[in-house]
Design a protein that fits this description.
3-stranded antiparallel beta sheet, about 180 residues
């Protein structure tokens, strides 16, 4: 297994669509026999490994009677400067998490590894999208250290601005319709 590292993109990048750092990770999935007439197995992401393991996706790691642990494959966590507040909140939670997304396919495993994210808002948003299987797993310390350095380098505190109502020409809905409040 290689050590985790962060690959920086060329200068000038940095919008939400252009990640400033990428962290390669391996994903471990547990497959259990299902007690169901509709499904043979239930899958659940159980761990993320820092670095890029040298193994073929869906390689068996261990197996017993009802549970098989599999290496699901390689994913890349992308870090964006616009999401540093979410990353910071995740690290400050006391139990930093990564969200693993498996997408159903017709392949032998029944799923493809779709993505891994450190952004809790993105992870939560993905839970409502179609048939994807989304599971939060513990973030390894080496990955949280990379994320922490990324936050320190790229976070810009955004002040909160409360929107003020424009009272200069504001009219109540009643006076806009031609009736006055006395008419009611």
């Amino acid at each position: 297994m290689s050590s985790p590292h962060s690959e920086l993109t060329p200068p000038g990048g940095g919008s939400r669509s252009t990640p400033l750092a990428r962290i390669p990770v391996g994903v471990v999935v547990e497959r259990r026999k299902a007690d169901s007439p509709w499904q043979d197995f239930l899958y659940r992401p159980v761990a993320v490994l820092a670095g890029a393991p040298v193994a073929t996706p869906w390689t068996v790691i261990s197996s017993d009677r009802d549970v098989t642990t599999l290496y699901a494959g390689l994913a890349v966590i992308e870090l964006h400067r616009t999401e540093t507040a979410n990353y910071r909140d995740n690290l400050a939670s006391g139990r930093p998490l990564l969200w693993v997304v498996l997408r159903p396919t017709s392949g032998a495993a029944g799923f493809d590894l779709f993505m891994v994210t450190v952004d809790p808002a993105e992870g939560e948003a993905l839970t409502g999208a179609g048939n994807d299987l989304v599971e939060a797993v513990s973030m390894p310390l080496s990955i949280s250290e990379i994320v922490d350095r990324f936050i320190a380098e790229h976070h810009v505190e955004q002040p909160f601005f409360k929107r003020q109502r424009d009272r200069s020409g504001a009219q109540s809905p009643v006076s806009r319709s031609g009736a006055s409040q006395e008419d009611e």
